[in-house]
Amino acid sequence: MSQFWINFIFVVGSFVIYTWIAVWARARTTREFYIAGGEVNPVMNGAATAADWLSAASFISVAGLISIGYVNSAFIMGWTGGYVLLATLLAPYLRRFGSYTVPDFVGKRYASKTARVVAVLCLVVISLTYVIGQMTGAGVAFARFLEVESSTGLIISALVVFFYAVLGGMKGVTYTQVAQYIVLILAFTIPAVYLSLMMTGHFLPQTGLFGEHTASGMPLLQKLNEVVRDLGFQDYTADVSNKWNMFLFTLTLMVGTAGLPHVIIRFFTVPNIQDARWSAAWALVFIALFYTTVPALAAMSRLNLIETIYPNGTKAAPLVYEERPEWVKNWEHTGLLKFEDKNGDGRIQFYNDANKELTTNAEWAKDWKGNELTVNNDILVLALPEIANMPAWIIGLIAAGGIAAALSTASGLLMAISSAVSHDLLKNTLMPHLTEQKEMLYARIAMVGAIVVATWLGLNPPGFAAQTVALAFGMAASSIFPALVLGIFSTRINSKGAIAGMLAGSLATVTYIFMYLGWFFIPGTNSFPNTPEHWILGISPLSVGCIGAAINIAVSVIVSLATEDTTEETKDMVRHVRYP
Predict the structure, then answer these.
(1) For residue 120, which of 559, 430, 402, 381 has the smallest C-alpha distance?
(2) Phi and psi at residue 31, to the nearest 5°
(3) How far apart, in whole angstroms, are the C-alpha atoms of residue 279 and residue 178?
(4) Which domains, from first to last, does the chain contain?
(5) What is the pLDDT of residues 162-178, one digit of tens each?
(6) What is the pTM of this model?
(7) Residue range 329-361, pLDDT digits in tens
(8) Which of 25, 77, 148, 480 has its CA 20 to 30 A from that of 9?
């Protein structure tokens, strides 16, 4: 059987499962549509939360980022730490409050429609930013593994999400995400185990990372450091130069991810506060299973890639282009891997040509005209089974896993947008007399609208897609997270303080990002070059979200203290959430 049909069976088979679940778990009431009836088992909800959390960025991109070196471990520390913040500071109390959505909590806690609308706007900006990457990621996976145009793959993905999200609501999304977690974790860990056994003899990738590289007899990390150093790259285990910025970046990822609305809403779906705690614990277990595998997979994948290009070692001649393996040809078609024979010798020169010391002093690089192979880090995981000559069924499995990761998070984000529009903007602000039947109808219409917008953005991604990731984390960190934490832990913060804080924190964060990445991300409009020497106090645009959060908290406190006190009813509400 050809590889195409194997991939087809895995991908379509997973879609059949998702569709069957959607039919079985279709929502019949608004409570089932918004929070799955509040009756999800904590273990199941933990798996669904993990699937919501582990987006296409986690599945496809994180290993590629960390393959560059230890410096990018901030992504894992920040995202995992953010979940711990969410699980301890927010989840149990939000579940006890009993709201359907994040803006619902903000609107009720601060007794303000304006605060609710501001929260809705922040939620929509954050979620739409995130969903661009999910839909685009699904399109890339389809383009490679089912040999269709990425736009065709994206539309297929949108139709699948449309069916199970519109029909099933949060109930359908929850049980579909459980299946998607199983698919994505198997798709990620099986190739990692295979590669670990192949390169180190260790069954567990987590121990293989610190084991011996079988072919050389050296410790794996030492061998990796040696080969990347030979090619002019930074050591894999090299320390980060700007620890201050790394600390702030990690903190921004933590508070930003803890404020992501599509994950917060998951804790409203369990029966009680104790189940919310157990749900958080199980989700952390499922997330840890994935993230502890990532560093090992990243290191081994990079070493495996380099050994493919330099089969006789980095001091010998590299691979002849015409003798390149099939996986190189396959990924060249996607545009994510490119070769340019700059010196015309027919071999693939892969090295860091920005390293002037190497290109000046290394005898073997004298006749080279520059790096000839461009490898997008996002392909490391998806291409891994082909690079390592794994069985064909593993390639099919990883195809289904990459698509599952994209769809699970996309459905959660679309659900968050739909709920915010129908429940918070319409039912609780503009059209308070909506019946439950009408609210369900508008919820489904809002979901359709969100899917259409997300699909359009996926088909026409803005040129600034990478920059908007910074905007998403910055907005979540500087707007939603402080409003939730202050609303839970302080009886004194009033609506004026919360609104002023959200606006001030968001404005400061967005302004700083625009200063370096361009105003509204329009190329050439940035006020300063995005380089370390121009950053204020050494803070990069990616790291400013936690500063925005601090500004939000400070403004919220100052404005609240300068204006009227909260009512006794609000104080009692907060005390009930904290001390039932």
Answers:
(1) 430
(2) -65, -40
(3) 13
(4) 3-74+107-306+382-578 (1.20.1730.10), 311-374 (no CATH)
(5) 777 777 777 878 888 89
(6) 0.85
(7) 888 877 778 888 888 888 888 888 877 777 666
(8) 25
